[in-house]
Specification:
The chain starts with 54 loop residues before the first helix and ends with a strand. It is α+β, with helices and mostly antiparallel strands. Strands 1, 2, 3, 4, 5, 6, 7, 8, 9, 10 and 11 form an eleven-stranded antiparallel beta sheet that branches. It is 22% helix and 34% strand.
Length: 258
Amino acid sequence: MADRVHPRDSTEPDSPPRKPLPPLEDTPVPPPVPGTYVIQIPKDQIYRVPPPEHGGRYKQYPHRQPRRLRRCCCCSVVAVAALIVLLAAAAGIFYLVVRPESPDYAVSGISIGGLNLTSSSSVSPAMEVAVRASNPNDKIGIYYLEGSSAEVYYTGIKLCHGALPVFYQPANNATVFDATLKGGAMVLTSEVRQALVSDQTKGRVPLAVKVTAPVKLKVWALKTWKITVKVTCDVTVDKLTATAKIGSRECHYGVDIF
């Protein structure tokens, strides 16, 4: 009878026993930042499209937003239009009640000194300019404030400068005020000196008088904000002396409301 062969044990007695693996440690989860919240939502409740019960509301939302925008735009346009109408009505009532008229300015006299054209040395021009301001308004007075300036030019060359007096001009009033103007020592070129001598010989020396005056208007008991009046008068004088006489004059002015 054949011998029975038994299976060999796979464990070899000579090999050392294997060490058991250490248990897996759970990785600690960092705590959330203070002030934040972690919300866990089941995956079956996350929709990439609105759920069926909200489908109708989703379709109506894009149409509601333009309607609201159109309503806001319409309200803004109506408010602006109403404001314009009110301002126009107030301006019309003010014009009908007050009847404002533009003041009138003119150079009524000028006295010149310090211009010696017979010598090539420096000159120091000095002038007294009389300006006539007429206020034809019945209900508007004019305050002439500090910070004014008056200058006299010959062919773009400034000869002298000064300021206007501070005063109040009532309604329906014409006031003549004198402005004292002085210039520093200046050397005239031979061309300018010859041109002045030639114009004086002809009896027509062209000068430009430029006045800038900050004013406030008084309507009844109310005063306006500061308004700047700019006047330019082109005049001709017969000679450059204290007894100079004005031949022609032409004035125009502008107003800076703000």
